[in-house]
Design a protein that fits this description.
heterodimer, A: 399 residues, Rossmann fold, 6-stranded parallel β-sheet, 14 strands, 16% strand, B: 391 residues, alpha/beta, 14 helices
Chain lengths: 399, 391
Amino acid sequence: MTPLRIAIIKPDWKIHGGFELVVDRLNEHLSAQGHQLTVAGYAAWPVPHRIYGRDIADDVWNQAPDFFRYLAQVEMCQRIRLQHADLVISTQPPTYAAEHGRHLALFYHHARRFYDLGDYVARIEGADGSLLAAASQAVRQIDNELFDKVTLMLAGSETVRERLQLYNHRYSGVDVFHAGPSIDPPADLGATRNRTVLSVGRHEFPKRTELFVQAMYLTDRTHGVCVGSGGRLGSVKELDAQLANGHVPGETSGDALWLRPVEPVERGTHEDRRPEQSRIEFMENVEVATLQQLMLTSLCLVAPALLEDYGLTAIEAMQHGLPVITCRDSGHLTHFVEHGVTGFVVEPNGAAIAEAIQSLVDDPDRAATMGAAARDYAAAFTWQRAFDEFDQAIEMVMS
Amino acid sequence: MDAHATETVDEIRRLTNAALGRADVGPITPKPDRVAIENELRNAAEHELVDTIPGGGGGLSGRVKTLVMRLSAFSWSRQRSVNYSLRQTIVRLLDEIDDLRSSIDVAEQRAALRATVTAAELKRLGDQLGTNAHDPAPSVRANAHDDVWCLAPNVVANDGDSELDAMYGRLEAAFRSADSVLQERLGGYLGDLEFLRGGNLPLLDIGCGRGDFLAVLRNAGIAGRGIDQNAAAVAEATANGLDVTQGDALEYLATVASGSLGAVVALHVVEHLQPETCLALVDEARRVLAPGGLLILETPNPTNLAVGAASFYLDPTHVRPVPADYLQFLVRDRGFDDVEVRFLHALPEYEATIELPEQPNGRAFAALVDDLKWALKGPLDYAVLARCPGR
């Protein structure tokens, strides 16, 4: 393909998570093909309280801060001058607001509090339902018009494509892209597995790491490792401490365990309260080699996130021979896991997850068989396939 | 909903319209007929039979009545449920009608706004055409907007002002040099561009205006084409048989193949550009020029104080004076070779010899006089000429 001048629109959220790793890989791929890349980044936080020439008073802003932040970014993206790019690739919401005749939107998720997570957010934050409804209606209206201007949307999974159909009635102009792993799969497994149960993911809503913690205290002869950081880490550690002390929190059933507002816990204080008998080791920042070693030696991965867009971590774990335990409302994760074959799809509660874990602890041979099946299934998820899908999308946009 | 929330919903509506480029239609207030319907529904709900079942009263008939009411409570309850569903359905339908009404209002207001804007634009163009019938069209009109190919939002300029555009045309006509002077000045570059004669690589004149320089080149047998934003100027150039395109220079350059031009000329353009745009222009010139190709950038000389302090600001679209030291540095920094600064168009007084009387500090005094001559009567313009490397 002729070298192109490609502008990539990416908000800077001051984190480097799974999506950023995907973008990094794609950037490397495009650069290697000789394309000239420019990342048009902008600070997604904080944003000015002035939008489309209107100063938004603090008391108004604070009633719907996420809406105003969203719209401020829409304006920022609309003002980026891109006419000299041959191709524009937008990434997270609402970078698809950038205007260009050849626009590929790498679309992993909507501004989800205004879509499928709205009800949950309202419950967690005690948000004013009518305000959230007004904001959601506005965001969907804006998104629909912005999507119309995008040449091609490249959904991060079949689940994301379904959401675009459900909420935005986009039945055409959407292809699917399957990202490859951020950790290279091992040539062979080799290592002996122990009874470590692994959880990898940010401690943020809607990752529901609370369910993993709860499940660990309902299992026998297990050790949990919880990899990841995030704003709810303090709260999750508090839950761990309570359970380790034999105290059962008042709200442990149903959604209440994870659908609760959390107060920021000062860094370090929860460490002091953690008892010796904690069954979970929390690891905030781990090297790739350490994570790889964990995946090679653990028993299984628990991925309890709510309505996950894709679930790259699960694919990586499966490539390392781990069966995956996920929940029936875990979104795209349920596409990866065939119940009883490559893992378990269970009810979204600690007891059901614990039962699945325990079945693997009690039957290591079955765990090994499921791990091998998981590895076979996940082998198809390679960066070569991802690059092929991506290149095909670019060719379609350029044609 | 409290007052704050109502205010926030209003703000959401206003900003949504702004994001979608729509006129603000103001708060959507229910139409009177809707209010009447809602009152009817409320009244009906308040007087539902099941909510006002009378007591049975005393006596046998009263007890029987009470018994009948209790026995039929199940069916009353179902009727209440049906009524409730019907009311909800009617309210939803009313909501949809309101939404449709507001959509129609928005569409009407957008149409009205477009009609107003179109009428104003037509009037402006008509006025401009009337003026141009008597005055020469504006020539170089480099846009002061930022047109570097990918700019962060905080450096993007606002849209132009149509009144300013119209005034600009009249201003430039009032202050432009006589055609004969112009021809002579432009002809000064012919020697530099001689190498293009008979070759395959054309010249691009950025901000070519009505094509004065292109006409000089054509007369000299040098092929060239131009780009300018001013439609009237481009029309005049085209009518004169010149190959001129209307549009943004950087956008146009983006369509030009790398290494395909023999020369890029931008006369009195860079002073109209923000530094980022100027840099982008130089970079693009570097890309489209063939090895050995020539770049010529001419601009007012701000070290002539009369220019730097006064005449530069006669043009309201000038962004900032560009000192020769800077432009020379920029061009060299962006990879050009053989960079030359050529000062141009000094006033006649500058060349005149001033007889100085004998005095003790004669040499220092003479130097001071030279400086003053430069500062007051020296070159009005200068040009940076540079070669694309790899000849």
